[in-house]
Amino acid sequence: MTVAVSAKPVGSRSAGAALLLTGMLLAALTEAIASTVPSLGRGDIIGDTYATPDEFAWVDVGYTVLPGLMTS
Fold this sequence. Notes:
The chain has two helices and no strands. Helix 1 (10-49) packs antiparallel against helix 2 (53-71). It is mainly α. The N and C termini lie far apart (54 Å).
């Protein structure tokens, strides 16, 4: 009885996994920054422009959605 052993390249799978993990980490970091910036400036934006919370929600949506559309 004969046993055949096939060799797989080890480096290609780990490189792909590292790139996937890096991409997911960057996406999570970008989302965290994009959601933090409007919340920090909420009081100043609403107070200076006399905007209602509903009007400020459009700023929040624009800050969250537009970077995703630009990168896709």
